[in-house]
Here is the input.
Amino acid sequence: MTIYGVALLALCFLVGKITGTLLGAAIGIDGDVGGVGFAMLLLVVGNNWLKHRGGLRRVTEGGILFWSAMYIPIIVAMASVQNVRAALTGGWVALLAGVAATVGGFLLVPVLSRIGRPAATQTEHE
Here is the structure.
C-alpha cells in the first residue's frame, strides 16, 4: 500500500534527523547538521535494498514517488527555518563541510551514473 512508502520515508526522516542532531552536538552546533540529507540517503539505500530483495511492491513505490514529488518544497520550507547564524558562526567548520560535500558529490557522479544501468551497457563503456 501507499502508506508503506510514506512509512519508509518517515522512518528515514526520523533516523536522519536524529543523526543530524547528534552530529551537530558532536561538532558543537546547537542544531541539525545534514539530517535531511542523511534521510534522503537512507531512503535511496533502503529503497534499492528493498527492490533488490523483492520487498518493495508497486503500490509501496507509489507512496515514495508521491513524497519525492513533494520533497523539494518541503526541503525549501525546512531550510527557511534552520539556524543560519549557527552555521555561519561555525566559520571554517561550515566551509570545510561545504567543500567536502561538494567534492564528495563530484566523486560520486561516476558511481551514481552506473546505478540502474544494465550489466551489458556497463561493460560496453568500460
